[in-house]
Amino acid sequence: MSGDEGSMIIDDEDDIDDKHKIAKDTKKDVSIALPTTSAKAATAAPSHDKDDSNVPWIEKYRPHTFDEIVGNDETIARLAIFSQNGNMPNLILCGPPGVGKTTTILCLARILLGDAFRDAVLELNASSDRGIDVVRNKIKLFAQQKTSLPPGRHKIIILDEADSMTDGAQQALRRTMELYSQTTRFALACNTSEKIIPPIQSRCAVIRFGKLSEAQILAKINSVCVAENINYSDEGLAAIVFTSQGDMRQALNNLQATYHGFGTITPDNVFKVCDEPSPLAVQQMLENCRDGLIEDAYKTLSDLWKMGYSPEDIISNIFRVCKNLELREHAKLYFLKEIGITHMRIVEGSGTFLQMTGLIARLCAIGDKFKKP
Ligand SMILES: Nc1ncnc2c1ncn2[C@@H]1O[C@H](COP(=O)(O)OP(=O)(O)OP(=O)(O)O)[C@@H](O)[C@H]1O
Ligand SMILES: [Mg+2]
């Protein structure tokens, strides 16, 4: 990495946020259309930022303290203990996207280091070059550097999205972690801990994050709607929760995209923005299967197919809708079994219309078998 790319020492807290905006979230963010004239102006006071009109809500509402982080209560409580006694071990935080791993590390570092946060934190994420040279030069240099810290505290090196680090770089990290253990702690965030080599795992406390529950996401987006003074319907918020699948980043992005695109949050608007098969259509299709009406079910399926949705999109939607479908328990078990088998076939590569048609045929047969007399 060339030296003139700038020191990786964070000069300003906002710098961190900027990095996240540019580097990290581009892949997952839904692009946001210009506001329509019908869109209400956001009037509520922002929670953290000063000039916030163009700030993505994921950044505007990024928690700055542990109290603001939603869900994973036990995990956060464990970390809160480290923040109290000050001696944090090396950490690996792993879990699905958008559940607050990066946010949590930043909160922890802020609490531990206070004003020293600027000078005593080195943050490297997937946007930075993190090959073996960076470990040899930048990380070592930072670890050797002298900084004044609150008593009993350590410098913190945050390796975000650590699963994208090369094996070589991870190997080079092994000794570095031990050599500078007197002065420096490492915090690695990743989606799957298997991609972190075992010797690094054994040097760290592994902290796991789970997906957020529907209620947790609903509560958060509800509070954002109130803060932003948005027009919404309860069904609209339920649609956001449905599309987010336990990912808070996705939920906030979808909310903002729907708001900027349409002004109000209704299920129709949400599904237009998120470009997912409409769960209402899928629900209708499954109800037809339950009632043994293969013609009607087939028509919905072929409509969805013609709209260009991928088999993965359709089957994952079918699964999510089926979980809440009104169906006799036995029939639901068989439904889920068939959906699982079809999903497996799609993942293995045979995501054809024929497979999907076969699925609804089997579901109709099950529906017929369990029909109430
Ligand atoms: N538990 C949470 N409570 C409140 N907001 C959250 C939570 N998790 C995520 N968010 C929101 O989503 C945004 C992204 O979260 P964060 O960057 O911490 O995700 P992550 O777990 O690091 O995801 P990735 O694995 O993709 O890096 C945050 O800025 C915040 O607005
Ligand atoms: Mg992250």
UniProtKB/TrEMBL annotation:
SUPFAM superfamilies associated with the record: P-loop containing nucleoside triphosphate hydrolases, post-AAA+ oligomerization domain-like
Keywords: ATP-binding, DNA replication, Nucleotide-binding, Nucleus
Record's signal peptide: none
Family: Belongs to the activator 1 small subunits family.
Taxonomic lineage from the root: Eukaryota, Metazoa, Ecdysozoa, Arthropoda, Hexapoda
Cell compartments where the protein resides: Nucleus
Biased composition regions of type Low complexity, renumbered to the chain: 37-46
GO MF terms held by the record: ATP binding; ATP hydrolysis activity; DNA binding; DNA clamp loader activity
Record domain AAA+ ATPase: where: 87-213
The protein, known as: Replication factor C subunit 2
Coiled-coil parts of chain: none
GO biological process: DNA repair; DNA-templated DNA replication
Stretch list, region Disordered: 37-56
Pfam families attached to this UniProt entry: AAA, RCF1-5-like_lid, Rep_fac_C
Listed GO CC annotations: DNA replication factor C complex; nucleus
Main localization, broad class: nucleus
UniProt key word Disulfide bond: no
